[in-house]
Specification:
With about 100 residues, this protein is α+β, with helices and mostly antiparallel strands. The chain has a single domain, classed as Beta-grasp domain (Ubiquitin-like (UB roll), Roll). The chain has two helices and five strands, in the order ββαβαββ. Strand 1 and strand 2 form a beta hairpin. The longest helix is centred in the middle third of the chain and has 8 residues. It is globular and about 30 Å long.
Length: about 100
């Protein structure tokens, strides 16, 4: 299973994804260091902010939690498709999703 991750310079990277890991963990495990994820996925920063560019046809993301909303609201580059990648658990329905790492805030 794969995710396409576009870094801030516009370069796409194909990332092998594992089911049950967060999007953040999959991206970091692939060596994409541009995704800082300073808090390690404990939902206390927004340095794993990504834009979900596209999902496979039948895929859906879980709604943002109130805590995720609060952290995203503090981001300068918030968009409708913004997510904290630590809050998206990868499953087979997300195979082929495309995300872009958000600008540093």
């Amino acid at each position: 299973m794969q995710i396409t991750v576009t870094t801030r310079d516009g370069t796409p990277h194909q990332v092998e994804a594992s089911t049950g890991l967060s999007l953040m963990q999959n991206i970091r495990n692939a060596g994409v260091e541009e995704l800082e994820a300073i808090c390690g996925g404990s939902l206390s920063c927004a340095t794993c902010h990504v834009y979900v560019d596209s999902l496979p046809a039948r895929a859906e993301l879980s709604p943002r939690s109130a805590d995720e909303e609060d952290l995203l609201d503090a981001c300068d580059d918030l968009a409708e498709n913004s997510r904290l990648s630590c809050q998206v658990v990868f499953d087979p329905a997300l195979d082929g999703m495309r995300v872009t790492i958000a600008p540093e805030s």
